[in-house]
């Protein structure tokens, strides 16, 4: 609904209604008789393009430029509307055509259909070994959470063990790649995991020459 969209974006209902009107006029959104909103096929294609460009820029900014997750998300949002299809294709080739963003979310609808859904970290039983699959789009909106997860190396492909899930303390405790760490159940519910050690091919690695370039840029900067 338009009101829910306004709350999500932090704008007035009037501003959201005007935006929806423009999108509907352009054939990107359809509005039902109950005033609920649905992306049209053209709207879904446009959304795919925006997300794909954002994801590619995040890979470029994190793995080549060396920005952190939270910084790269903010910078990618500024740049995603400015790159052409030709530049988009070139970045994709440079990065080895990643199927996901750096946080593990499918880069487009086609990739989404071929990847496992995973389960919420908050629903995993104590004592179970898990692999981080993806940090959901909702979790990406929390810059502090992104900083925390990156600092603790709880990134897609990382192996961890659930030590304790406590509803009374509203927390999940993990033995992660770097240390024992604890987070709330709410952020844990925004992280999808796979049981055990997952297939490594699920997690994209940028080509070696790109990784070498990133290391060279880091050395020069220091």
Structural account:
With about 220 residues, the protein is α+β, with helices and mostly antiparallel strands. Helix content is about 50%, strand content about 15%. The chain has ten helices and eight strands. The chain has helices at about 1-10, 15-25, 40-65, 70-80, 85-95, 110-115, 135-140, 145-150, 185-190, 210-220; strands at about 30, 35-40, 120, 130-135, 160-165, 170-175, 180-185, 190-195. Strand 6 and strand 7 form a beta hairpin. Helix 1 crosses helix 2, helix 3 (about 40-65) crosses helix 4 and helix 3 (about 40-65) crosses helix 5 (about 85-95). The termini are far apart.
Q: What's the CATH H-level superfamily name of the largest domain?
A: Ferrous iron transport protein A (FeoA)
Widest sheet: strand order? 3-8-4-5-6-7
CATH topology of the largest domain: SH3 type barrels
Shape: globular
Encode the helix/strand succession as letters. HHEEHHHHEEHHEEEHEH
How is the biggest beta sheet arranged?
6 strands, antiparallel
Count of separate DSSP helical elements: 10
CATH C-level of the largest domain: Mainly Beta
Q: Residue ranges: pLDDT <50 for 5 or more in a row?
A: none
Number of domain units? 3
Give me the Rg, rounded: 19 Å
Strand content: 15-25%
């Amino acid at each position: 609904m338009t009101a829910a969209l306004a709350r999500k974006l932090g704008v007035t209902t009037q501003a959201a209604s005007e935006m929806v009107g423009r999108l509907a006029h352009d054939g990107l959104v359809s509005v039902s008789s109950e005033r609920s909103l649905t992306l049209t096929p053209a709207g879904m294609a446009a959304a795919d393009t925006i997300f794909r460009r954002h994801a590619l820029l995040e890979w470029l900014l994190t793995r080549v430029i060396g920005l952190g997750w939270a910084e790269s998300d903010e910078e990618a949002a500024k740049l995603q509307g400015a790159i052409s299809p030709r530049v988009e294709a070139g970045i994709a080739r440079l990065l080895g055509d990643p199927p996901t963003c750096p946080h593990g979310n499918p880069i487009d609808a086609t990739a989404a259909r071929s990847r496992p859904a995973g389960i919420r970290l908050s629903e995993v039983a104590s004592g179970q070994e898990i692999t981080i699959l993806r940090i959901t789009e909702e979790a990406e909106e929390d810059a502090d959470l992104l900083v925390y997860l990156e600092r603790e190396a709880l990134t897609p492909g990382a192996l961890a063990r659930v030590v304790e899930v406590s509803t009374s303390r509203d927390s999940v405790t993990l033995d992660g790649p770097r240390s024992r760490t604890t987070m709330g159940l709410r952020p844990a519910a925004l992280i999808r995991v796979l049981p055990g050690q997952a297939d490594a091919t699920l997690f994209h690695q940028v080509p070696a020459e790109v990784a070498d370039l990133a290391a060279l840029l880091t050395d020069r900067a220091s």
